[in-house]
């Protein structure tokens, strides 16, 4: 057996004792050698020899104890840290020796870990408080799709306390469908504790190296009702404004004509030509305002009767080419982008693009500027840009408000129709002032077709 293997079989304490005795052995042997060469008697020699051996062994064991005791203390401190007991502290006497430095560092580590645990506990308590107070249902599932965490809103939604929900599978809770594939943005659903329209969001997080699912369900019914009420209020204001604009002049003119006709029989020497002129002018006002009111109602009906799009894969380049060819007032610069195929109703998208180009050309003609069209790929969307060199949008203009227009003869429904068409395709439409030059940029996004 080699010396290394023998050392491994002996414990650290035994090795330390053997090392201490072995260190003192040369000096002991030399002393005993000199002792036995002296003139002392035999009994004195054996007595001094025994005393020397006992002192050597005793000092070895004292050295062993003095070396092992601090290590056991450090081991106890580290064990306390492992068990998350940060109250234990070691005592160090000297400020500049290795053992004192070791104990001091362990004490500092214990204080740091205690502060970290307190911060973590406070953060966890804050997180649980926030989760309990928010009105959004939150569910956390482990890799086996079993519920591990639910907040108060989730308990209300499923009409059961957390103690009866945690540990149950997503299938038992009726939530499994939203953990598979791509969850819908909004859904009409009946839960045990509530009925309405809900927003579904899902994400993942890792705990102890394992991936967990986080499901967030928010009630959209109240928000949608508030938005619907605000929409009705805006619509009523617009309708009231337009109706008053038309009915006010009609009523005033009708009263004037009524008085005019009633007085003709009482007046002598009245001028028939002047009377007919006043009458014709009043009837013209009534006719004009009635026509404007009829056009207003027709415009509103056009918005309300927008059909659902018939979606099909279609290349974006031919749509842009056809729409730009229809605008004859100004040459439109087209910078072709990549060959993209969108999922769209071609006729509706062409109509929206024609309206946007018409607005861009109207703006460019005011400043003798130009219009430029291009498109590019953004994630899974086709982004089409229409830049004009017109005066730009007014700071306070809300161009998508129904019947709002910055043009003297504008109807205020063109941009609204464009946005409704694009949003019905699952896309989006925004208007903003250009950052690189004077003018406006229309940004139209459409989903790409699966290829």
Summarize the SSE layout with pairings.
Blueprint: H1 3-9, H2 12-36, H3 42-82, H4 98-133, E1 137-141, E2 147-150, H5 152-158, H6 162-165, H7 170-173, E3 186-190, E4 195-207, E5 210-219, H8 221-264, H9 272-304, E6 312-315, H10 316-325, E7 332-335, E8 341-344, H11 346-367, E9 371-378, E10 381-388, H12 414-424, E11 428-433, E12 440-447
Parallel strand pairs: 7-9
Antiparallel strand pairs: 1-2, 1-5, 3-4, 4-5, 6-8, 9-10, 10-12, 11-12
Helix pairs in contact: 2-3, 3-4, 8-9, 10-11, 11-12
What does this 3D model show about the protein?
The chain has 451 residues and is of the alpha+beta class. The chain has twelve helices and twelve strands. The chain has helices at residues 3-9, 12-36, 42-82, 98-133, 152-158, 162-165, 170-173, 221-264, 272-304, 316-325, 346-367, 414-424; strands at residues 137-141, 147-150, 186-190, 195-207, 210-219, 312-315, 332-335, 341-344, 371-378, 381-388, 428-433, 440-447. Strands 2-1-5-4-3 form a five-stranded antiparallel sheet. Strands 7-9-10-12-11 form a five-stranded mixed sheet. A hairpin with a 5-residue loop joins strand 1 (137-141) and strand 2. It starts with a helix and ends with a strand. 16% of the residues are buried. The model has no long low-confidence stretch (mean pLDDT 75).
């Amino acid at each position: 057996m080699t010396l290394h293997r023998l050392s491994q079989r002996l414990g650290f304490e035994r090795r330390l004792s053997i090392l201490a005795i072995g260190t003192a052995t040369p000096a002991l042997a030399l002393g005993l050698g000199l002792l036995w060469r002296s003139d002392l008697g035999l009994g004195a020699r054996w007595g001094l020899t025994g005393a020397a051996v006992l002192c050597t062994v005793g000092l070895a064991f004292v050295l062993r104890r003095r070396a092992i005791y601090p290590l056991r203390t450090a081991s106890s401190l580290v064990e306390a840290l492992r068990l998350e007991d940060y109250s234990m502290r070691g005592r160090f006497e000297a400020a500049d020796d290795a053992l004192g430095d070791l104990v001091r560092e362990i004490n500092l580590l214990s204080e740091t870990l205690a502060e970290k645990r307190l911060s973590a506990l406070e953060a966890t308590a804050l997180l649980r408080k926030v989760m309990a107070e928010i009105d959004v249902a939150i569910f956390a599932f482990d890799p086996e799709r079993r519920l591990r965490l639910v907040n108060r809103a989730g308990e209300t939604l499923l009409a059961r306390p957390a103690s009866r929900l945690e540990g149950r599978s997503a299938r038992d809770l009726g939530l499994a469908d939203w953990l598979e594939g791509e969850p819908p943005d909004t859904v009409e659903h009946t839960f045990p504790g509530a009925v309405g329209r809900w927003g579904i969001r899902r994400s993942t997080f890792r705990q102890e190296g394992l991936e967990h699912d986080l499901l967030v369900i928010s009630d959209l019914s109240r928000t949608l009702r508030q938005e619907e009420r605000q929409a009705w209020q805006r619509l009523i204001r617009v309708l009231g404004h337009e109706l008053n604009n038309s009915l006010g002049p009609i009523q005033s003119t009708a009263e004037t004509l009524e008085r005019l006709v009633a007085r003709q029989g009482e007046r002598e020497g009245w001028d028939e030509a002047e009377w007919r002129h006043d009458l014709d002018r009043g009837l013209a006002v009534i006719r004009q305002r009635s026509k404007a009111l009829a056009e207003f109602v027709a415009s509103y009906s056009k918005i309300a009767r927008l059909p659902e799009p018939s979606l099909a894969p279609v290349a974006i380049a031919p749509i842009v080419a056809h729409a730009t060819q229809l605008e004859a007032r100004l040459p439109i610069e087209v910078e072709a982008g990549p060959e993209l195929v969108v999922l769209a109703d071609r006729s509706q998208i062409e109509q929206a693009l024609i309206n946007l180009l018409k607005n861009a050309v109207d703006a460019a003609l005011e400043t003798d500027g130009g219009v430029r069209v291009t498109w590019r790929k953004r994630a899974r969307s086709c982004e089409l840009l229409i830049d004009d060199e017109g005066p730009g949008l007014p700071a306070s203009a809300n161009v998508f408000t129904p019947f709002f227009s910055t043009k003297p003869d504008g109807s205020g429904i063109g941009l609204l129709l464009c946005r409704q068409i694009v949003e019905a395709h699952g896309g989006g439409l925004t208007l903003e002032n250009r950052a690189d030059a004077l003018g406006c940029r229309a940004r139209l996004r459409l989903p790409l077709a699966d290829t």
